[in-house]
């Protein structure tokens, strides 16, 4: 995610129903109005794949090496 204004983003929660269950997801936005506008933009979303891991931005050299090795050998 990138921000041209460098303004801090808040996390907004949205929920929906699917197959008889309730689900939720978050959107990072400047404010509630911005979050609702971003929700509308999801009409244009494209599938990018399954998230399999989250690596902290401040990962040390060991974590970076582990991720590199996994990416190099797991296809």
Describe this structure in words.
It is a single chain. The protein has 75 residues and is of the alpha+beta class. It has a domain at 1-46. The chain has helices at 32-41, 61-73, and strands at 10-18, 21-29. It has a two-stranded antiparallel ribbon with strand order 1-2. Strand 1 and strand 2 (21-29) form a beta hairpin. The longest helix is centred in the C-terminal third of the chain and has 13 residues, at 61-73. The mean pLDDT is 89.
Task: Offer a quick outline of the entry.
The chain is an alpha+beta fold and 75 residues long. It has two helices and two strands, in the order E-E-H-H.
What labels would you give this structure?
75 residues; alpha+beta; two-stranded antiparallel ribbon; 2 strands; 31% helix
What's the SSE blueprint?
Blueprint: E1 10-18, E2 21-29, H1 32-41, H2 61-73
Antiparallel strand pairs: 1-2
In helices, the fraction of residues equals 25-40%
Poorly predicted spans: none
What topology, given as strand order, has the largest sheet? 1-2
Would you list the SSEs in sequence order as H and E? EEHH
User: Major beta sheet, specifics?
Assistant: 2 strands, antiparallel
Number of DSSP E strands? 2
Mean pLDDT rating? 89
Q: What is the straight-line distance between the termini?
A: 26 Å
By DSSP (H or I, 4+ residues per run), the number of helices equals: 2
Strand content: 15-25%
* Tertiary shape: extended
Give Rg in angstroms.
17 Å
Secondary structure class reads: alpha+beta
């Amino acid at each position: 995610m990138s921000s041209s204004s460098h303004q801090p983003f808040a996390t907004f929660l949205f929920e929906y129903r699917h197959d008889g269950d309730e689900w939720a997801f978050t959107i990072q936005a400047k404010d509630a109005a911005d979050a609702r506008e971003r929700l509308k933009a999801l009409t244009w979303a494209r599938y990018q794949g399954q998230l399999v891991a989250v690596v902290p931005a401040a990962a040390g050299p060991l974590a970076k090496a582990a991720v590199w090795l996994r990416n190099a050998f797991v296809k």
